[in-house]
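Subject: Interface between my chains keeps coming out wrong

I've been trying for a while to get a sensible model of this assembly. When I model each chain on its own everything looks fine, but I need the whole thing in one frame so I can look at the contacts. Pasting all components below, labels as-is. Any help appreciated, I'm running out of ideas.
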Amino acid sequence: MSLLVTGSIGIDTVESPAGKAVDTLGGSSIYFAYASSFFTPVRLVGVVGDDCTPEFLKPLHDNANIDLGGLEVRAGSKTFRWHGKYHEDVNERDTVSVDLNVHGEEGPTIPHAFYDSEYVFLANTHPDLQIELLGQLGCPTFVACDTMDLWIDTERDSLMKLLAKVDAVILNDAEARQLTGEMNVVKAGFELGKVVKQYVIIKKGEHGALLFAGDEVFVSIGYPARNVVDPTGAGDSFAGGLMGYLAEMDATDVKTVRKAMAYGAAVASLELEDFSLDRLTELSRADIDARLAEIASITGFED
Amino acid sequence: MSLLVTGSIGIDTVESPAGKAVDTLGGSSIYFAYASSFFTPVRLVGVVGDDCTPEFLKPLHDNANIDLGGLEVRAGSKTFRWHGKYHEDVNERDTVSVDLNVHGEEGPTIPHAFYDSEYVFLANTHPDLQIELLGQLGCPTFVACDTMDLWIDTERDSLMKLLAKVDAVILNDAEARQLTGEMNVVKAGFELGKVVKQYVIIKKGEHGALLFAGDEVFVSIGYPARNVVDPTGAGDSFAGGLMGYLAEMDATDVKTVRKAMAYGAAVASLELEDFSLDRLTELSRADIDARLAEIASITGFED
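Reply #2:
Try treating it as a single job with all components included. I did that and got this:
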């Protein structure tokens, strides 16, 4: 089934204990698109400046499953830039600099050819823009969104309007707590479950993720990764693997979502083994299925 | 099979967002003993002062599965006291006060009747005392120990000697990192696996636990608890459920340890629903089995 993603596209510089990568391709929608492309054709909607050359975007152009029909290269604008530095403990990072550039201008437009998209992921951006983009679509089967601390802080009303429109929200534990004012992440998840139509998925980084569905909660483990080079994009890769699998299966029941979360964890755990898209571009679906099988074998217990 | 535990016994005062409990029964060996008593007979070895009345110790006296033959009530001494205060986020706590009292004096002695103990848990105390107590035992089948930041900081040599003598170490993620200097908790686990005889079990609080066995790592989930009244003793209850099940089964293969960890998570998730031993003393084995079944049903995915 068709899967559409909108969100940031950036030129990233990342420093981690493993090294430094300067001016590499990044952004939420990029990681999402690449991760989901292993499962289903993906339609990417976003804006870059004319400093984003075809050569720079080569990993996207080279991927037959990513449709760039919604990628606007805006003349005279500059691409969003982010520079982050991870601590020795890579669960902590500082933002060295952010330049909104084209992300501070008018948002992207969804091309007519994408109106019939059935699965949609609204990656983190201003919630008013997320609502507007959603309004440009026909009648999608399943819509999920992400957000960030900035919008929870400054655009709460818009964000709550958005949440009421989506089938699922995929956000991290700190965001879930901030949004609900509830320190217990399980209570926070059930609280958010009253707002969205169907599912709340709370990402806990290396500790996995929680799925809230009605009055039930399920736990998806994080893969115990030894080789963490660059965690940038892991959360978006998780969402990409998850939504990609749902679109591939064209199913959104709890059982399918639970397996989709494991696929998300599998892709994310591979993605962070190198900078930017470097690991994802090496992968085959078989590599992801092998990681999924490994996750299955190390999870749980025989009763 | 017989299970012996040595460790602290305290008079605790705990403040949490859910309320305050003054001068209640606590200490690592107490939580461990009560948690493991659902699975197997437990032998408790420890020292209290004569301010610890039989009335105060009533939950232990009332538990037919806990053998108090190794409990020394030392005349003229005072019991260890701890006062802790949890933050609104109960993953954070401050120590308001600690009075070592009898724990600053000579350690306990293992009674002759306990020399033949087959399963042994050396809960956190000075590693020299842990080594000495282990030396007082015959030839136990399986010995596990815990430790704390203080000893990692001040008694590293003794602690490393202890670790080389035990079959398993059960410690939390911060301790594993501190002990190895390795920020990646998975690398830290494998590092410690080179020191102990068999298993490294790293507790991650609400996020579950990791088991390191040779070159393999397994993940045990944390139960998504909504009702956290007092996390004090959850880690010791986890260890108690785990070791209790191993002793009950008289088996320590990886498969049994994985199920034992799930039992540990089940008991711990119930324990934190009230202050001190208040929840544990209400429980039956059937309650724990029901929680285990719930953990099984919310873990993993069908592949």
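Reply #3:
Confirming on my end. Chain B has ten helices and 13 strands.
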